[in-house]
Each structure stands twice: as structure tokens, then as C-alpha cells.
Design a protein that fits this description.
alpha/beta, 13 helices, single chain, Dihydrodipicolinate Reductase, domain 2, six-stranded parallel sheet, Rossmann fold, seven-stranded mixed sheet
């Protein structure tokens, strides 16, 4: 079911082979998140770090969210700051696409991502999509469907995926993970499913070490009234995300235990995005990303059912039917 979203690199390989040997002009869509300042500072500071050598942010289209105050209020400040770092502000996405080779889709509001990414895909520009990939699971599926049809890969991730300890466990440091727990803040935004807005950070860490194969989800609350969601994976493995003030967690594997879920800055995510732009190989598969958002959508459905267990298959079947009708 989710497997059908995976595509081969295909035509994008031609771009990556050429771009890897030359300077890459990058653009930004959405100047309403602090991520754009972090990325621009790293890419446009001389001398550049070896991991991003030859990639520079040259242009940006400022509009992100159309109606979320916490986003729209940031745009004037962030616009001026990226201009100071040598980025040209352009009046439309089409104007941006005329000036760049690759795109960072940074709009804080996932609801606008589908409409913003489609022109990029049509122009054959590879795109990194910052979290959340979309405002609904349905839109997330539509994004991957469009990229597959055009043979232009995209990927989306939280920076928490690339924490050093989390990546070590992902790489097999404690063997197969049998159980994992992660925490992160989980502030809510009324237009998004609860965990899409900020809880995605901790959920991304959870999936980084657990991998795909989550079958069902149950949502509850802690004694302090915080969100807690437990997923059951194939083979009886379990993973739990719990809302908390900080980022962290623990994984229990065949070979021992390890700390996971820490935040190690934005550069590791940026380095992965640059490698993606150079090679055409996404560090996170469409299958895994879709399952992360199905997990979070199932958590909302469990909430609506007073904590009842909800299968990811049920949620995915419904979303796929709507996305492809």
C-alpha cells in the first residue's frame, strides 16, 4: 500500500551528475521560520564548510503561511536578514524557479506546501520540504505522487532525525530496536493534526530508530495531561512518543540500550539536503515519511475515539482513496 509511493531516481540522475561538479544555486520558498536563517548563514558564509561547498542560496520567495500569525509576523524580519546575507527577494515562485537549480520549501504552514511544490516539480527542480511535509496526510500523498510522476524526487524531514545518537542506533549500534521512547515539545496549531505542527520532531526520532512497519496506534494522556502515543510495530515491537519540554529518549535493542532523540542543530539536516541535491538520492524514503504522517493522523483518530486502537491501514486506505479519486 505505502510501498506504491516509492520511485526510482530516473531522470533526476542526469541533473545530479552535472550539478555535483559545479556550483548549485539554491532558492527558498517561505521566509516564516528560523530554519531559513540557519540554512542561509551556513550556505552563504565564506569560507564555506566542506559539506556544503559550492551550494549557495541566491533567491527567496517570502510568502509562507497565509493566515497563521506566528508565521506571517516573522516574514518582514526574516526577509531583511536573508537579504543581508546576499539573497535576492523575488515576487513569485515562477521568478524564483528561473534563478535556481534546487529549492528549500520552508513555509512553516504545511497547508500551502502542495500548491507551492507543484510548480517546482513541473520545472524539474528537486525540493527539500521542511516539516511538516503537508497539512494533511492526503496532501502528503499527493506530493509524492506528483514527484513520482515527474521523476523528480523530493524528501522531507525534521532536523531531529539527524541527531548523532539517533543516527547511531539507526545504523545498528544496538542491533534491532525492540522498544523505543522519545519526547519533544508538541505545541498545537488549529489548522493541522495535533502532532504535525511540532510533535513531529519526537515522532521523527522514533521512526528513525524503529523504521517502518508500524501497524496500529493508541493515544492517551499522561498524569500531567500531556500527549502520549504508543505504536505497535510488526513483531510486537513498540514505540512511544510523549509530549515534554525537551528532546530526548531511549532505545532498547538486541545489544543494549542507547540515548536517542537529542537535537544537534540544523547543520546535519542541511548537509543531508545538500547531499540529496548533489546525488538525487533521498536520505528518507517516501514510504517512511508517509508512515510517519499516517502514525500522527492515526493518533488524532484514536483521540476522536477516546483512546481506542487505530490501525495505520485504515488511515492509509482512507487517505489514498481521497488523494487519488
Amino acid at each position: 500500500m505505502i510501498r506504491n509511493l516509492i520511485f526510482t531516481v530516473g531522470a533526476f540522475a542526469l541533473f545530479s551528475l552535472n550539478a555535483s561538479a559545479q556550483h548549485i544555486r539554491a532558492g527558498i520558498i517561505g521566509l516564516d521560520t528560523s530554519h531559513v536563517l540557519a540554512f542561509t548563514k551556513t550556505l552563504n558564509t565564506t569560507p564555506q564548510k566542506p559539506e556544503v561547498m559550492g551550494v549557495k542560496l541566491v533567491a527567496a520567495y517570502a510568502q509562507g503561511s497565509k493566515d497563521i500569525p506566528s508565521s506571517t509576523q516573522r516574514v518582514p524580519e526574516y526577509t531583511e536578514k536573508v537579504k543581508e546575507l546576499g539573497v535576492e527577494i523575488v515576487p513569485s515562485i515562477n521568478d524564483l524557479l528561473d534563478k535556481v537549480d534546487v529549492v528549500f520549501l520552508e513555509s512553516n504552514d504545511g497547508r500551502v506546501h502542495l500548491e507551492q511544490i507543484l510548480p517546482c516539480i513541473e520545472a524539474h527542480k528537486p525540493v527539500f520540504i521542511d516539516k511538516p511535509i503537508a497539512g494533511t496526510l492526503v496532501d502528503a500523498i499527493k506530493i509524492f505522487d506528483a514527484s513520482k510522476k515527474a521523476s523528480i524526487p523530493v524528501f522531507s524531514s525534521s532536523s531531529l532525525r539527524f541527531g548523532k545518537g539517533t543516527q547511531a542506533v539507526r545504523g545498528g549500534s544496538i542491533g534491532t530496536v525492540k522498544q523505543a521512547e522519545t519526547t519533544s515539545p508538541a505545541s498545537l496549531e488549529e489548522h493541522h493534526p495535533d502532532l504535525f505542527w511540532y510533535g513531529v520532531h519526537g515522532v521523527e526520532s522514533l521512526f528513525t530508530v524503529m523504521g517502518t512497519g508500524c501497524q496500529s496506534v493508541k493515544r492517551g494522556t499522561t498524569a500531567e495531561g500531556k500527549i502520549t502515543v504508543t505504536g505497535t510495530w510488526s513483531g510486537g515491537r513498540t514505540g512511544t512518543f510523549t509530549e515534554a519540554k525537551g528532546y530526548g529518549g531511549k532505545a532498547v535493542g538486541e545489544k543494549g540500550e542507547a540515548a536517542i532523540g537529542t537535537y544537534d542543530g540544523y547543520d546535519p539536516l542541511l548537509f543531508s539536503a545538500v547531499h540529496f541535491f548533489r546525488t538525487g538520492i533521498a536520505p528518507v524514503s517516501p514510504e517512511e515519511t508517509i508512515e510517519i504522517y499516517a502514525f500522527m493522523e492515526a493518533a488524532d483518530e484514536s483521540k476522536r475515539r477516546n483512546g481506542a486502537e487505530v490501525t495505520l491501514k485504515e488511515v492509509m486506505d482512507k487517505a489514498l482513496a481521497e488523494a487519488r479519486k
